[in-house]
Design brief:
The complex is a heterodimer of chains A (131) and B (615). The termini of chain A are far apart. In chain A, 4% of the residues are buried. Chain A has 131 residues and is mainly alpha-helical. In chain A, 66% of the residues lie in helices and 6% in strands. A two-stranded antiparallel ribbon of chain A has the order 1-2. With 615 residues, chain B is an alpha+beta fold. Among the domains of chain B are: 76 residues, Penicillin-binding protein 2a (Domain 2) (Alpha-Beta Complex), CATH 3.90.1310; 339 residues, 3-Layer(aba) Sandwich (Beta-lactamase), CATH 3.40.710.10. Chain B contains 21 helices and 24 strands. In chain B, the strands form 7 sheets. In chain B, strands 4, 5, 6, 7, 11, 19 and 20 form a 7-stranded mixed sheet that branches. The chains are: A mainly alpha (131), B alpha+beta (615).
Chain lengths: 131, 615
């Protein structure tokens, strides 16, 4: 069996040599600026993408809120409608008669006349109607 | 030999040429190559130009560049609706508002046709639409979407949604709703399906009530929701103006109830009541009957919802106009309250016989008695004393013959023939003196009476109290537009009208008191009233023989009047005379209004057998 013996020392030396030469590879001259520009561009793109994403998310949140607002406004107008119907004199009259309430009779009215500044001497009068 | 030689030579040449042709490469001449190259270059250039055109938007399809079409797919202009303004009465009750209600559509393509008949029956029961109509809509697959019913009540819409049937679509659509139904319908007006006000306040203030629709231009998703990626262009909507009317709901309720009762009782064609505040010109109530429900205006004849009889209908006012004749004569100093004219019952003027309502004479009468007896002969003589110049100048000063300017669509001007008109004759002055031969609107007449109750100050009538856009409100200020008569003249006429009112009172009270003499029309109060039984023009220069318009104009109370009232009953069938058709209506309305206004009665103004607030 043939064995090739190679001294360890030169291998280490070569490795050292390669390590020393590595810096030369990193000396990119003009290319370094290009890479920096590309990196900057990528960074800006990532930031823009992130911002756009956030904007879109917030936009959808706003759209959801607007939808909620529309729903609430619809509910409000429906409640306004129910309130207006409940306050209509016809409805009040109907409910009053259902409760067996009856209109005030004329003889039930009493008028209290309160003297004004001009006739302060005039006492308060109560007028009974239709004695 | 030569011939042989020649033949062999020729054969040899042909063979040689064939051999040469077989081995010689095909060549194309240079000019041909150049032509091909040129053609190819042109084609490439054409393609390049076309590509460039596509990219730069030069190519148009149906008038739009491809770039525009592409942009339109994602960037759209969406409308921002502006709700129509709310209309309220003077107490803040809502009379008209916009409500989003759901409408039901079907998409026939998504309906399971096997179960369609059953679904149609179910929907029919919920919506009240005939099931064959619904089924026909469901089977009409030629259409993508068919509307079944607009504007469902929320409860019904919920029940339809609960069916959870594919192919049933509920979409919100704004609807103008009038929650009080027929209350003040003629004054408020109506809005058509295009959201345009067509009558009343809705029509007059249509532009303000509608506001303006806004727009948002933005990139949208598949549901047409704006995506907030690119900058948006927003043109905000301007909401409609809210209106608060001067109408008092209680006054309106009283006059509508009483008017309906009177029209039904006398089997009349219709009627009108206006209640105005004499001090400001504010309209507190305005009713006409028959009326309509603005929520379903389309179910009524067009003239019903297009016109408000209180401001759009002209009529000859009849004897109520004698108030004007007396007031004008006193103001013009053409006569005094003590001036006496003879009333023989009928007189001849310019070949025509002019008579009193009953043909009977009243003898010597002063202006007060002319009003009291409603003497046509006396009134026409007063008009003669005034003279055409002052008479027609006063008509103009009182605002007759031109619209009052109230904020209701379709107001009529009235018809006044002056001496400048080609068809005017002195006879017209005579008939005008007792309210015939002139056409006025009910509003013009009540305004004239209001001026007498307001010491001669003529106010501009108005029905909109305030206009608000958000918290920014414009309040209508009462505006005096003239003073056709002096306060003293107004007071004199009021005193005359109190006596005239008491003269009519037995119509209401005689059955209770047994007294057919003058008594208090509204016990506890002095009120002014003057009746008018107007003949109706037949359109051929004469008058309808068997029909009249009964009306009463007055003030309640007579001094410091809170209300100027006009009641009008059109063509009553059971009685010809206003005193029997319109006076009970006037009396009932005045009584209820004074009680509502909490005006204390004077017990010295109650005759035996009468009750305050009674009858």
């Amino acid at each position: 069996m043939a064995i090739t013996l190679k001294p360890l020392y030169p291998t280490i030396r070569e490795a050292k040599q390669r390590r020393l030469e590595l810096a030369r590879y990193l000396q990119l001259d003009g290319g370094r600026r290009l890479i920096a520009a590309a990196f900057l561009l990528a960074l800006m793109s990532a930031i823009t993408l992130g911002q756009t994403g956030r904007l879109a998310t917030q936009g959808y949140a706003i759209a959801r809120l607007q939808h909620q607002q529309t729903e609430l406004l619809r509910e409000r107008s429906n409640l306004q409608l129910r309130l207006a119907r409940a306050q209509s004199l016809q409805d009040i009259e109907r409910r009053a008669s259902r409760l067996q309430l009856r209109p005030m009779q004329y003889e039930q009215a009493r008028y209290i006349i309160i003297g004004t500044d001009e006739d302060t001497a005039a006492p308060q009068q109560t007028i009974p109607l239709n004695p | 030999m030569a011939a042989r030689t020649t033949r062999s030579t020729v054969v040899g040449r042909v063979s040689a040429r064939r051999a040469a042709q077989e081995h010689r490469p095909v060549t194309i001449s240079r000019w041909r190559l150049n032509v091909i190259l040129l053609l190819a270059t042109l084609m490439i250039a054409r393609v390049a130009v076309h590509l460039g055109s596509l990219q730069t938007g030069q190519v148009k399809v149906e008038g739009h560049t491809l770039a525009e079409m592409a942009r339109a797919e994602i960037r759209q202009q969406l409308a921002i609706p502006s709700p129509r303004g709310v209309i309220r009465d003077s107490k803040g009750n809502v009379l008209a508002l916009d409500v989003d209600l759901q409408s039901l559509y079907v998409a026939p393509g998504q309906i399971d046709q096997k179960t369609a008949p059953r679904l149609a029956l179910t929907l029919s029961a919920l919506l009240g639409v005939p099931s064959p109509d619904i089924l026909a809509a469901m089977q009409n697959t030629a259409l993508y979407q068919v509307r079944i019913k607009r504007w469902l009540e929320p409860e019904i819409a919920d029940r339809v949604a609960a069916l959870n049937e594919p192919g049933l679509l509920l979409q919100y659509e704004p609807r103008r709703v009038y929650p009080q139904g027929t209350l003040a319908a003629h004054a408020i007006g109506a809005v058509n399906f295009e959201n345009v006000g067509i009558s009343g306040v809705e029509g007059y203030y249509d532009t303000l009530l509608r506001g303006s629709t806004g727009t948002i231009t933005a990139e949208v998703d598949s549901q047409r929701n704006p995506i907030w990626i690119a900058p948006q262009e927003i043109q905000p909507a301007s909401p409609g103006v809210d209106l608060q009317l001067t109408l008092d709901p209680m006054v309106q309720h009283i006059i509508e109830t009483e008017l309906k009762k009177a029209v039904d009782e006398h089997n009349a064609d219709g009627g009108t009541v206006i209640v105005m505040d004499p001090r400001t010109g504010a309209i507190r109530g305005m009713a006409s009957y028959p009326t309509y429900d603005p929520n379903r205006y389309f179910e009524y004849p067009a003239e019903m919802y297009n016109l408000n009889p209180a401001v759009s209908t002209q009529y000859e006012p009849g004897s109520t106009f004698k108030i004007f004749t007396v007031a004008t004569g006193l103001q013009a100093r053409a006569f005094t309250a003590d001036t006496v004219v003879d009333d023989p019952g009928s007189v001849y003027r310019y070949g025509w016989s002019l008579s009193n309502w009953n043909g009977g004479g009243n003898g010597p009468v002063n202006p007060e008695r002319i009003l009291y007896y409603s003497s046509n002969v006396g009134a026409l003589q007063l008009a003669e004393l005034i003279g055409p110049e002052k008479f027609y100048a006063a008509l103009e000063a009182f605002g007759f013959g031109k619209p009052t300017g109230i904020e209701i669509a379709g107001e009529a001007a009235g018809t006044v023939r002056t001496p400048n008109a080609p068809d005017w004759s002195p006879l017209i002055l005579n008939t005008n003196g007792y309210g015939q031969g002139i056409a006025v609107t009910p509003l013009q007449l009540v305004r004239m009476v209001a001026a007498i109750g307001n010491d001669g100050k003529l106010m501009r009538p108005y029905i909109v109290e305030r206009r608000c856009r958000g918290n920014d409100c414009v309040i209508t200020q009462p505006r005096q537009v003239g003073q056709p008569i002096e306060p003293g003249v107004a007071w004199t006429v009021r005193r005359m009208l109190v006596k005239s009112a008491n003269h009519y009172a037995p119509v209401v009270w005689a059955s209770t008191t047994g007294n057919y003499g003058d008594t208090w029309l509204v016990p506890g109060y002095e009120v002014c009233a003057k009746t008018g039984t107007s003949s109706i023009p037949d359109g051929r220069g004469g008058y309808v023989q068997d029909a009249t318009i009964g009306s009463v104009a007055g003030l309640a109370p007579a001094e410091h009047a809170r209300y100027a009232i006009l009641v009008k009953v059109d063509r009553p069938r059971d009685d010809y005379w206003a005193v029997r058709t319109a006076i009970p209506l006037y009396q009932s309305i005045a009584t209820q209004l004074l009680r509502y206004e909490r005006v204390a009665p004077d017990m010295g103004l109650v005759d035996p057998g009468q009750t305050v607030g009674g009858q």
